[in-house]
């Protein structure tokens, strides 16, 4: 499976959705999901306000598949109050916590993806405890601490079907360009023997399950 040239058809203007996914990464996510979602339902870890979910979900809707969108919606380390990527619009002062779920739901409603995307408002450790569904594609873009990234990887890698796709966002081999936790799980996947490495698109690392 390789990235093909099917036109990317999105239900809303993607620039109206908060998020950090570059256009070429979103388009690659869409293209691979078009094929991988035919193998089975898909899962993304780290939905935030739904930018990646629109790309991923639109592809799954085309194939009548389901996308599970996993996020505790309390933000990663860099989203917290006083941190570099803190967004006051997503901060609930009443409980002194981040809450991106309300905006995520608005995005899914605007994109008419509520019948395709199933939100899982929890962590990988909890969601994966009793998980039995084999998946056509897993996209990991959750917390960027070493513990969070390792947990996301180990929770879901064993549920990808043969021929399915593993995608990992924010791959920065040079530590001066970005955090190393996603790159470390990318290296785990590469060394595992479970996957064939596919070309990286910008910072989106891609593998196919053998």
Shape: globular
User: Any idea how many domains?
Assistant: 1
The CATH class label is Alpha Beta
CATH architecture: 3-Layer(aba) Sandwich
CATH-defined fold name: Rossmann fold
CATH superfamily, by name, is: Vaccinia Virus protein VP39
* Estimated share of beta-strand residues: 15-25%
How far apart are the termini? 12 Å
Please summarize the sheet with the most strands.
7 strands, mixed
* SSE series: HEHEEEHEHEHEHEE
Q: What is the average of the pLDDT values?
A: 92
Given the structure, what is the number of helices?
Answer: 6
Q: Quick one: how many beta strands? A: 9
- Pairing-aware structural class of the strands and helices? alpha/beta
**Strand order, sheet with most strands:** 5-2-1-6-7-9-8
For the CA atoms, what is the radius of gyration? 16 Å
Folded structure, characterized:
This protein has 6 helices and 9 strands. The strands form 2 sheets. The protein has a 7-stranded mixed β-sheet with strand order 5-2-1-6-7-9-8, with helices on both faces. It has one domain: 3-Layer(aba) Sandwich (Rossmann fold). Helix content is 30%, strand content 21%. The mean pLDDT is 92. Helix 1 (23-36) packs parallel to helix 2 (51-62). The protein has 210 residues and is an alpha/beta fold. 46% of the residues are buried.
